[in-house]
Amino acid sequence: MSAAQAQATNGYFTHGTGVRAQAVAGVSLALPQDALVAASNPAGTGRVGDRIDAGLTWFQPDRSSVIEGNLAGADGRYDGNDDAWFLLPDIGFTRAVNEQLSWGIALYGNGGMNTSYADNPYAAFGASGMAGVDLAQAFITPSVAWRAGNHSFGAAATFAYQRFEAKGLAPFDGFSSRPGSVTDLGHDSNTGWGVKLGWMGNVSDSVTLGIAWSSEIDMSNFDDYAGLFADDGDFDIPESFGAGIAWQLNEALTLAADWQRIQYSDIDSVGNPLAPLLSGVPLGVAGGPGFGWEDSEVYKLGTVYTVSDALTLRAGVSHMDQPIPGGETFFNILAPGVIETHVSFGASWAVSDKSEWNFAYTRGLEKTVRGANSIPGPFGGGEADLTMHQNILAIGFTRLF
Fold first, then answer.
1. Whole-angstrom Cα distance, residue 290 to residue 288?
2. Taking 90 as the threshold, does the pLDDT of residue 111 lie above it?
3. pLDDT higher than threshold 50 for residue 1
4. Could you tell me if 368 and 13 are in contact, meaning their C-beta atoms sit under 8 angstroms apart?
C-alpha cells in the first residue's frame, strides 16, 4: 500500500479512515461502519461482521503562504502546490471467530504533510531551487475484539512506516547542530510500533458510547535529517484519545458525535517552538527547536440516514482547535496544517445483498493563520501568513461474507 501523503485535515492527522467514516466527518468512536474502524476504535472490530472494505481517496490540498514587511526582500505570495494531488488507498478485513471473539486487519494512512514551492519562500535568505517537505505515513493495524453482552472491548497493535524529504532549506543549515543533515538529502524512512485500546457499549436500546486511545508511537530516527528535527532526527507519532456517542432515533436515522484530542506538543520536533533557535539552541539537539504545534481538540458531528435497503446517505461536520500559533508561521510555511473546519457527505449503494459501493466528498474550508511576530529578526522580520483549503473525494467497495 502506498503511504498516505499530505492527508492533513486535523493538523496532519486524517479527518477519517475509510470511505464511510470520511462521509460523516470522521465520526467513528461509537459508530462502527466498516472494517477500517480499528484505526479509530478497535472495539468496533466485533461490531461490523465478516467483510472486506477497500477504498481510494483523491486528495487535493491548496496550500499557500504570504510574506509581508520583510527587510530581506522575501515579500510575496508563494504557491505550495507544485505537487497538486495525491491518491491514497485503504483496505480492511474483519472476521468473527464466534459470537464473542472477532479479529481484523486494516491498512491505511493516518496522515502526512506535503508542500512543494517552485518559487522558494526562503530564497531571499540564501536558499535555492524548490522548497518543501514530503511526510508520508502508512499503518498496518491487526485487531481483536471481545463482545460480552452489550459491551465490546478491543485491542490492536499498529505498525507505522514514515517517509520524509526536505528541500530548499539551506538557510537553516547554519542553525543546525549537524550541518549537512538538514535539507536536500532525498527520502529517508523510519518505523515503529504502537498500541490501540477501545470500548463500545450499548447503554440503552438506542444509545451507544465509545472510548478509544492510541499510544504515542516511538519511531526510529530520520538519520538523514538528524540536523533538522529535535533529538537527532526523532519524529514520533503523537498519542491521541477520544470519546463518542451514537443515538439511533429510529430505524432509519442515526446521529453521532466524537471528541478527540491529539497530543502534538508531546513530540519535541513537532511541538517545541522555534524561538530557542535565536538564543543559540540549534536545530537537531535534544529538546531543540521545532514547529511549535499545540495540542488540538477535534469535535465531530455526523448523521446516517437509511433511505431504503439499497441506499444510505451520510453527512457530517467537524471543527478543531488551531494547532499552529501565529508566532510559529515562519517555519510552518513548510507544514501549513491550518484547516479548522470541514464538511462531508456521502452515500452507499447496495448492488446486491453482499456488495456495496461507497463514496464520500469532504471540503476542508479555507483558513488563514496570520503571523504575529512570526519572522525572526535575523531573517529580516515581518510576518508570514498561512492559508489552506482542501478537496477530498473517496470511493470504495464493500464485500460482505
1. 7
2. no
3. no
4. no
Is 0.90 surpassed by the pTM of this model?
A: yes
Q: What angle do CA 199, 54, 106 make, to 5 degrees?
A: 40
**Which residues sit opposite 116 in a β-bridge?**
81
The residue type found at 187 is: H
Q: What is the DSSP letter of 17?
A: S
pLDDT band (50, 70, 90) for residue 8: low
DSSP-derived secondary structure for 252-274: SEEEEEEEEEE-GGGSHHHHS-S
pLDDT in tens, 140-174: 999 999 999 999 999 999 999 999 999 999 999 99
Which of 261, 256, 268 lies closest to 240, judged by CA? 261
What cell was used for 135? Answer: 511526510
pLDDT at position 293: 98
- CA 149, 151, 155, 160 torsion-angle sign: positive
92's CB contacts (< 8 A; 6+ apart) are 18, 34, 35, 36, 37, 38, 52, 53, 54, 104, 105, 106, 107, 108
Owning domain of residue 175 = 4-400
Instruction: Return the CATH number at 90.
Output: 2.40.160.60
Q: Burial-class residue 350 by CB neighbours within 10 Å (0-12, 13-18, 19+).
A: middle
What's the whole-number average pLDDT of the chain? 96
Share of the chain above pLDDT 90, in %: 94
Cell of 311: 441506499
Cite the beta strand spans of 69-185 per DSSP E.
Answer: 76-79, 86-96, 101-108, 112-114, 132-148, 151-167
Exposed/middle/buried for residue 372 (C-beta within 10 Å: 0-12, 13-18, 19+): exposed
Number of structural domains in the chain = 1
Which H helix or E strand runs over 199?
strand 188-202
Q: CB of 297 within 8 A of CB of 318?
A: no
375-398 confidence digits (pLDDT tens) = 999 999 999 999 999 999 999 999
Do residues 15 and 362 lie in contact, with contact meaning Cβ atoms separated by under 8 Å? yes
Average pLDDT over residues 267-291: 96
pLDDT score recorded for residue 262: 97
Cβ-contact 243, 210 below 8 angstroms: yes
Residue 299 confidence (pLDDT): 98
- Tell me the pairing of strands 76-79 and 188-202: unpaired
